């Protein structure tokens, strides 16, 4: 076997590995390796973590994963009763964490005028902030050309601009103390075009633009940025999703489906990503994960598959049913 034959075999083996192995995963290869061989979640013990959008879904389950390793938590969202429920469950998840280690901080993240006051409260309460988890946001189901421009503005204010506003204030604090960690809940829709969620997809793409710009501008190893990109997760997000009309909610329940990752598993994997300070991770059922790999690295193949199966493929992967009837 000469040198070029060896290189050819290695190349073919490499691509086959990336085609086959993701079918056995529920997250990207890098995160899977970190889960097994990387830094343990227990390394986060004692860290002060502020989670926005913590009253349900991904934020709620991340709070439980962090409570188990005795992080100090600030839980923020608009619904006080739900935040108190999450706090109670966090206290039950750990034998060591105390009542004073978890702060319920009611917050409408879209009210950017209060961000500085809330950040000051966090610092006063715990004396520091180590990790900001930007998790607040809502999804969308709508036909692209029918979306009212007011919906675009409302969703960007919630999913993008409110996050940037809070993060700019927190960055100044992190820069002052010399360390910190941004965790941003994006989506597979943040790296791929997803049908019937035009505004949502745009708002998540924008987050990548903002934070990748920050990463390149500062190149600060002491303030890592972790972009978290979940696919379909078994959480009650659909009922609160935006539609094409301002002030309207989609109002449908999410079906329980095998092609969705459980909230518990998603929360655990995000905790792994935080402990290992990954730049970006994908969390999804193997079918969605494989389609993401194709879309990212083999776009021509991905486009062929999409044209063959149509936009309904995405709807069935995401919602386990057709939620928006295409015209």
UniProtKB/TrEMBL annotation:
By its UniProt entry, which Pfam families does this protein fall under? Answer: adh_short (PF00106)
Q: InterPro entries this protein is in?
A: KR_dom, NAD(P)-bd_dom_sf, Sc_DH/Rdtase_CS, SDR_fam, SDR_family_member_7
The transmembrane residues are 6-25
The Ketoreductase domain sits at 47-236
Q: Name one GO molecular function term.
A: oxidoreductase activity
Keyword vocabulary terms for this entry: Membrane, Oxidoreductase, Transmembrane, Transmembrane helix
The UniProt entry's GO biological process terms, in alphabetical order, are:
lipid metabolic process
Superkingdom of origin organism:
Eukaryota
Q: SUPFAM superfamilies under this entry?
A: NAD(P)-binding Rossmann-fold domains (SSF51735)
Q: What is this protein called?
A: Ketoreductase domain-containing protein
Q: What is the native source organism of this protein?
A: Aphidius gifuensis
């Amino acid at each position: 076997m000469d040198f070029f034959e060896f290189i050819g075999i290695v190349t073919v083996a490499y691509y086959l590995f990336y085609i086959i192995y993701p079918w056995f995963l529920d997250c990207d290869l890098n995160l899977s390796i970190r889960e097994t061989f990387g830094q343990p979640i227990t390394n986060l013990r004692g860290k002060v973590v502020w989670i926005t959008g913590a009253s349900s879904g991904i934020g709620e389950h991340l709070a439980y994963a962090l409570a188990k390793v005795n992080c100090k938590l600030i839980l923020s969202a608009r619904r006080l009763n739900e935040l108190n429920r999450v706090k109670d469950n966090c206290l039950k998840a750990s034998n060591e964490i105390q009542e004073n280690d978890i702060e319920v901080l009611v917050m409408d993240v879209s009210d950017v005028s209060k961000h500085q006051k809330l950040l000051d409260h966090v610092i006063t309460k715990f004396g520091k902030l180590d990790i900001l988890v930007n998790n607040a946001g809502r999804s969308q189901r709508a036909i692209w050309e029918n979306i009212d421009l007011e919906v675009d503005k409302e969703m960007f204010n919630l999913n993008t601009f409110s996050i940037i506003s809070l993060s700019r204030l927190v960055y100044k604090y992190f820069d002052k103390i010399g360390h910190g960690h941004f965790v941003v809940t994006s989506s597979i829709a943040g790296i791929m075009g997803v049908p019937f969620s035009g505004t949502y997809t745009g708002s998540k793409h924008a987050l990548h633009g903002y934070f990748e710009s920050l990463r390149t501008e500062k190149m600060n190893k002491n303030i890592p940025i972790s972009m978290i990109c979940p696919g379909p997760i078994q959480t009650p997000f659909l009922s609160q999703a935006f539609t094409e009309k301002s002030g309207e909610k989609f109002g449908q329940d999410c079906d329980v489906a095998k092609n969705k990752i459980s909230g518990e598993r998603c929360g655990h994997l995000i905790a792994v990503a935080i402990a290992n300070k990954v730049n970006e991770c994908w969390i999804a059922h193997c079918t969605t994960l494989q389609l993401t790999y194709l879309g990212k690295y083999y776009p021509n193949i991905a486009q062929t598959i999409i044209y063959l199966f149509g936009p309904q493929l995405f709807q069935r992967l995401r919602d386990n049913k057709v939620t928006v009837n295409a015209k």
